Fold:
Amino acid sequence: MQCAQKLISQVNCVVELSQQMRTEDLRYLELLNRLRSGQSTIEDYQLLCTRIIGNPKLQASLRQKPWNEAPILIFRNTLRTHINNRAVLNKAMEMGLRPMVCVAQDYFQGKIIDDLRLRKTILELYDNKAEHLPGYLPLVPGMPVLLTENMATELGLSNGTRGIFHQLVYEESSADIQFQDKNFSLMLRSFLRKMLQ
Structure:
């Protein structure tokens, strides 16, 4: 109890969401407003049922549009990563492209980790042990993406914004020689094999 009191005493600002800004569907917006105030109706429930993939009346496949491009919200990180990896492979096959894999560069006390075994161990950590960031991030041009953090709200790049990945622009670092190591390419091949499972 003392721990909870100390935690609550740390809160010095509370923000109440009084207006939903990103929802364009008027019916759904009204549903959210009623839900927030505890005044939901049976019609709200019926509307929500139309948005459930498991609806028995819905004859749709996650392999067909528009369902194959719908964001899937998952609360288990390992399942989310598996679904995302499968989606990348499906999009790559559809587009006839090879997926690119971005590899996380981890630092310890401001220095690049150069111990290959430690680096391999860190890259293979589950997302929930690595600040919800994967060690390997597969991408393919044309794939849909969903932002999970506010990046530039003034430009409309906020949490929940959907977009299409086109190109990765980065500066090549000459400091990291680990990518030249043959063991590293084995690690990457091992990751790609796991994606295909």
About this structure: The radius of gyration is 21 Å. Residues 74-197 form one domain. Residues 31 and 44 are 6 Å apart (CA to CA). Helices lie at 2-9, 26-36, 42-49, 77-95, 116-123, 182-196.
